[in-house]
Specification:
Elements: E1 3-9, E2 12-21, H1 23-40, E3 43-55, H2 65-70, E4 74-81, H3 86-93, E5 101-106, H4 110-118
Parallel strand pairs: 2-3, 3-4, 4-5
Antiparallel strand pairs: 1-2
């Protein structure tokens, strides 16, 4: 497992990605977002990258239909980590093409990421 659910509260979730993210990890995280969406009508996540090493090289990454199916319920994603991953994270999440708000914060701006995630004013990107 390369992720850890640190905290789940109301509609916000705090997830830590460690090492390489696998297809199975992504599927489990998508399940978490579905449950949150069903409970709260939306999903917000603070994704902390710790010793992140990217994505595994395996089949299955092409199945991203969930992102399109539930995008209206994903209101905000805040990533915190080494800035060398910023471009790849934005590409992976499809930031320019999504309706949800997606931001990346350097490791020393964890508190700012939490504050941004909690703001009710959700800009459409």
């Amino acid at each position: 497992m390369s992720y850890q659910l640190i905290k789940e509260f109301n509609r916000n979730n705090w997830v830590k990605l460690i090492g390489k993210l696998t297809v199975r990890d992504l599927e489990e995280l998508q399940d978490l977002s579905r449950v949150s969406f069903e409970k709260f009508g939306q999903f917000r996540a603070l994704v902390e990258l710790e010793d992140f090493q990217g994505w595994s090289k395996e089949a299955g990454w092409e199945n991203s239909s969930f992102l399109e199916e539930s995008e209206e319920g994903v209101s905000k994603l805040a990533f915190v980590g080494d800035e060398k991953w910023k471009t790849e994270v934005f590409m992976f999440t499809g930031k320019p093409m999504r309706q949800m708000a997606i931001e990346f914060f350097p490791q020393d701006q964890f508190d700012q990421a939490q504050a941004w995630l909690s703001e009710e004013n959700i800009p459409v990107r």
